[in-house]
C-alpha cells in the first residue's frame, strides 16, 4: 500500500451523506418542485445514498452502487408521492434525489482530457461517467416499473 492509499478520505461517509441529503431538496425546488417534493427528495436521498454506501462496502463497482442507490430513491419517491397524502410528484422528487449521484466532475474532467489530446484517459473517464448515468437511469426505471 502506498502512502497515498493510506491517507484517510477528506470526508466521512456520514458527512457525505448529510451533504447529499441537504442538497437534494434544493435541486428539487430548482426543477420547480414544491416544499413537499423537496422534503421527499431529502428523505429519498438520505436512504438512497446511505444504501449505496452500504452496497459499496461489499461491491466496489460504481455502476452497481449507483444502480442500488437509484433503485432505493426511486422506490421511496414513488411511495412518498402515492401514500403520504402530500401534493407531490414522484418525478420532481427523483429529479432532486438523482443530482447528488450524477458524476458531473468526472464528466467535465473527461471532456477536458479529450480537449487536451489525452484521448485514452478522457474516453475511459467519459465511458465510466456514462455507464454510471445509465445505471442511475436503470435503477430508477426498475423502481418505477415495480411500482406500476
Automatic annotation (TrEMBL):
The chain crosses the membrane at residues 35-54, 61-80, 92-110, 130-147. The keyword Membrane applies. It comes from the Bacteria. InterPro entries: ThrE-like_N, ThrE_Dicarb/AminoAcid_Exp. One of its GO terms (biological process) is succinate transport. The keyword Magnesium does not apply. It is found in: Cell membrane. Belongs to the ThrE exporter (TC 2.A.79) family. This is Threonine/serine exporter-like N-terminal domain-containing protein. It comes from Streptococcus mitis. The lineage of its organism: Bacteria, Bacillati, Bacillota, Bacilli, Lactobacillales.
